[in-house]
């Protein structure tokens, strides 16, 4: 494909869409699929065909629109009316939608009340849940069909790559560095810097690896991005490859996410057919292609050296760093492992410029962050917010609080590696630094709300149990320390704990933080320590009551 | 991977399908460096688990020692060494589901089926397992049966989940038959 053809294809697709009186997009991600999205699409298509409206109404899929608990969601775009989002759709409601709303609109009518009898299913797109969000990574969700390359092109797809092809590797690294983009997997290392290290390495073969091993239980940001906008991740990886002169790309995706794997494989095939992947990409003379590798259920494989071992087909155990993967990674070649969300930001940065991106967020944490908002919260789902927004705004304004008569007690960020943040600290802005100061971390973006009926001690135990189970066993601090700490917590949960046990927990935690080989062991004590820091009374209340001396 | 040509399409490598599918599978993957996990995924995808004989055969065909294969199989949670039964019920035990009461749901199903997590019913119909996170946290608490997700479950009604699957009959019949014996 020649570069100019990108615009031609995009224009053709756009003209096709604009010729439609009505466009309906139904969420096609795992969440809405399991609520029955496929049945809704089938019914809409059948009913429209029966009325002979296929030429006037387009029905398609789209990425996650956020309100997963209210799925299946259908968004209606028409010339005559503002966009309308319908929630909790059923096939029968789809029929009524066609009969009472779509057919008249497609016939050229402007309805006084376009939602008609479906009013109870309409979600207000101006409500705080949407209004407070800022969508960069998720900008195509709700608009473009993830299974159609042409749809991605309509929304500026592969224009970032096109721009990158006209820049030197160093210029791309500088641009990304200037944007302030930091790794969205949790650690927050500046992406441009990471790329630049890999760029400086001399090697005939270099790898860019996409870490799609979203192991944090209670988090689904990366799944949503892979499923909802696969081409954006592909494009981001190719730009990363140009920035460090990499020769091969590898997707490493959880096997538990079959739809995400499917979408990525499909996107690769489409891009290859269109000449966007493979030989002589966009007539530039540059060649690049992808491999897809599946994870197999090991949390530790989110750690980059363990991930690399797994891509090599071995047990996913980490190894000491240095040497860092940028020096010696996959098959001992310089490699760069990037998180899904990080990569999905990249095409937008190239297209709109580093300044545009750097204008969002705080001084040190730029851009936006996608969070999976779950637990005891009214609006369960996926949100993207600018960095610097407070936790309170996310939980109370966007999330709508608990939605019950119970009070919010706190949130857990960063999953098993993060920590608990009490409600009293909710005015803290979201940034890498602020969350760390609270004893938690950004993590990949899980945000789990607990209410006053939930026990912090038991939640801490839940996370530690997870880490102990997922410890690969290679290094002693993590393997032995985790197990011993879990025994002590079990004792406390059972009501047999003593002050000495709490002191021992702190001691073991320190040993694990300092002595563990990788981040799994180093961060495993975080949920327990932060719970002790912010909710110490819950622990002491559970301790064994001293037996009163008999008179 | 590095010795493969950059734009090679893996499907095109297998020209003609020999009779035995493990041989086909081994041929497909053995030229790709480090593809043992992918080959095991494909094997399990076909058989539902990785039987010892198949692992041995795969090892011979791919030139990988059996020890290496078991090293991988036993490390990763995803691989199963025993037949999981006809219906695999996976109860999500991720944090969002945990907070919404998934342990209760899991125990309820254990009682209904008369087995523990990780076990199969004696008739081979059901296998019950807890899984880390299915990534549908907005629908917590949830379970999946043979890959299909059932969201927003009533944790006090394990029987309800089995009814939704539409296959609650056999296990009761099986249980009664076992009692009668």
TrEMBL record, chain A:
Alphabetical list of Pfam families matching this protein: 2Fe-2S_thioredx, Complex1_51K, NADH_4Fe-4S
Catalysis performed (reactions): a quinone + NADH + 5 H(+)(in) = a quinol + NAD(+) + 4 H(+)(out)
Presence of keyword Cell membrane: no
Domain of life: Bacteria
Occurrences of domain NADH-ubiquinone oxidoreductase 51kDa subunit iron-sulphur binding (ranges): 457-502
GO MF entry, a single one: NADH dehydrogenase (ubiquinone) activity
Keyword Lipid metabolism: no
CDD domains: TRX_Fd_family
SMART domains: NADH_4Fe-4S (SM00928)
Secretion signal span: none
Swiss-Prot/TrEMBL keywords: 4Fe-4S, Flavoprotein, FMN, Iron, Iron-sulfur, Metal-binding
Cofactor(s) required for function per UniProt: [4Fe-4S] cluster; FMN
Family: Belongs to the complex I 51 kDa subunit family.
Xref: PANTHER family: NADH-QUINONE OXIDOREDUCTASE SUBUNIT F
Role description: NDH-1 shuttles electrons from NADH, via FMN and iron-sulfur (Fe-S) centers, to quinones in the respiratory chain. The immediate electron acceptor for the enzyme in this species is believed to be ubiquinone. Couples the redox reaction to proton translocation (for every two electrons transferred, four hydrogen ions are translocated across the cytoplasmic membrane), and thus conserves the redox energy in a proton gradient.
Protein name: NADH-quinone oxidoreductase subunit L
Species per Swiss-Prot/TrEMBL record: Pleomorphomonas carboxyditropha
UniProtKB/TrEMBL annotation, chain B:
Cofactor binding note: Binds 1 [2Fe-2S] cluster.
Top-level taxon of the source organism: Bacteria
Annotated Pfam families: 2Fe-2S_thioredx
Keyword Mitochondrion in record: no
Chain positions recorded as [2Fe-2S] cluster binding sites: 92, 97, 133, 137
Needed co-factor(s): [2Fe-2S] cluster
Similarity-based family: Belongs to the complex I 24 kDa subunit family.
Protein name: NAD(P)H-dependent oxidoreductase subunit E
Organism: Pleomorphomonas carboxyditropha
